[in-house]
Amino acid sequence: MNGRAIRIIGIDPGLRRTGWGIIECDGARLVYVASGVITPPKDDDLAYRLSALFDSITSVIQSFSPSEAAVEETFVNENPRSTLKLGQARGAILLAPARLGLRVAEYTPNLIKKSVTGTGHAEKHQIQAMIAFLLPKAKFEGADEADALAIAITHAHHRTSRQRLAALTPKVAET
Q1: Catalytic residue among 24, 68, 72, 147
Q2: Active-site residue 12, yes or no?
Q3: Which residues are 19's β-sheet partners?
Q4: What is the DSSP string of 34-62?
Q5: Which of 12, 24, 68, 147 is catalytic?
Q6: Per-residue pLDDT, 161
Q7: What angle do CA 43, 47, 48 make, to 5 degrees?
């Protein structure tokens, strides 16, 4: 990697299990750095579980010094209470990189799947297989870590387009 490499953390939010994965990208070249899963104590009250998520993600970011973060957007499921709790977990997770000054991007589950596998309705095993192919040195132990790495890869693929669009937006508004 040369001096243009960018380090990205991808985060797959969850109240029980939050996956995180860090890659470096230099143009089209992707390199695995690290990954893991955060599991807050399930018997703690919600506020303490959210605090544990925030503290753990903050610690990971401080340890690996990524420049940018990407987080999966919440999908709405049939249970409104579960959706609300996931939204609260996402809030704690989004806050950590923002407080540390990282730019945070969000991606839908279908876009992540499509970016990594070519189809927006890929199964978990397909994502894991593609992560193993795209990042042959990756050492992940399950879907949460693989999903987080997929989120980081999605950001690596889409970040240039996002930056170009952001650069054009002020110019369009001025005219």
Answers
A1: 72
A2: yes
A3: 12, 37
A4: EEEEE---TTS-HHHHHHHHHHHHHHHHH
A5: 12
A6: 64
A7: 55
17 residue type, one letter: R
Q: Is 43 a catalytic residue?
A: no
CB 8, CB 155: distance < 8 Å: yes
Sheet with 68-72, edge to edge strand ranges:
29-38, 18-26, 6-12, 68-72, 103-107
Catalytic residue among 68, 144, 145, 147: 144
Domains for the chain: give ranges and CATH numbers: 6-174 (3.30.420.10)
pLDDT averaged over consecutive 10-residue blocks of the chain (175 residues)? 83 95 94 97 94 98 98 83 90 97 96 92 92 93 95 92 60 52
Annotated active-site residue 144? The verdict is yes
Residue with tokens 């001025």, as numbered in its chain: 174
